[in-house]
User: What shape does this take?
Amino acid sequence: MNKIAIYVIVAIYALYWSTESIAKGVYLEPEVFIAQTFDNNPPKPDKLWITKKLKTAIYNILGHDLGVIRLRYWDDKIKRAWILEEIGRDRPITVGLVVKDKKIEQVNVLIFRESRGWEIKYPFFTDQYKQASLIINNELDRKIDGISGATLSVKALTKLARLALYLDTQVSNK
Amino acid sequence: MLLIFKKWHKKIGVIIALFVIFMVVSGIVLNHSQQLNLNTRYIQLKSLLDLYQINPATAPIGFLAEDVWAIQVGERVYFNKREVVNEVKKLIGIVSIDDIYTFAFDGQLTLFTKEGETIEHLTGAEGVPAGMKEIGHDDQGNVVIKAAHGYYHVNLDALDWKEYDYLDANWSRASSIPEQLNNTLLNQYRGRGLTIERVLLDIHSGRIVGQWGVYFVDIVAMLILILACTGVWMWWLQK
Assistant: This one.
């Protein structure tokens, strides 16, 4: 009986630690994401200045300032790639987003630093953003199904999807 | 039998009542810690900060460019007295060109205005070389970087990176931090090292007083279990 109890405890601990170890970390280096997006021939990054007008719209999307006054993006005249960050609960999540024809083509969670909510990295979740575009008030044109236990990470990713689409529109209008 | 259960049920109930109230209240508060901003509000009480040993693992290290200090205290980096970056492993140096201050750390460059406003963060995706060891500047106003696989110079506006076998530069070197600034930053570091959520969580679990606190909370939990069992048992006997 005692042996069974010990096995159960060891199994629970092993499961806990293995879950922790796959939760945090660098899933895809940002430079690899850019290289993959542009078939190993990435364009030189362009820059977008965060003007007063953009600042207000960004605040409305994120609920806070972006924290920088200049952003880089990659544009090969067919699609644009953005690397953006947003805090889930306590720490920033780094996400790579590709926008083509004002629609999201790809979303990749690159670096996840939170202890919970890492399930947002899986394609079953990120695929929901594919072909999403902006409607009125810079909202997405669709409802994103959440993941139980990852509410804040889901919210962060949705904000970044909206932000990437908004920034992309600003670049197109330049 | 029923009388014995009643007697012990009452005794245990009275003994643990205060603890149960505290556990319930702290549990509810912890459940809403984000809405209450407990994870972003910090304890300033010196005795608690001492108890948790909130101090940087190593002495602060600082780099000076013109009149701006880039200082690493623990895992945080400060622009003069303002915390600007967190979770930094190693600050490499600072370079000032045309009133733009570039901090180098952990394979990243972060550019600031003279007022300390963040201009942008540059990483490997923007071409920052891997294994950055030193940062400096040449006489033409280019940033120069010594990295694991060679030397690079770059115009940070255009992001034109050029690789060389060797480059000479005015390298950023660690300087002695003025005592007053050093102490101010150490106090700031301590003041942002311990959240209310963390302390509440440790009180809730008993960890605030170490392993014995955890055992104590375990005992209280067992007593609550006994209360539940004796309650159900008495109800059963009276049926």
About this structure: The radius of gyration of chain B is 28 Å. The first helix of chain B runs from residue 2 to 31. Helices of chain B lie at 2-31, 46-51, 179-191, 196-205, 211-238. Chain B touches chain A through 15 residues (CB under 8 Å).
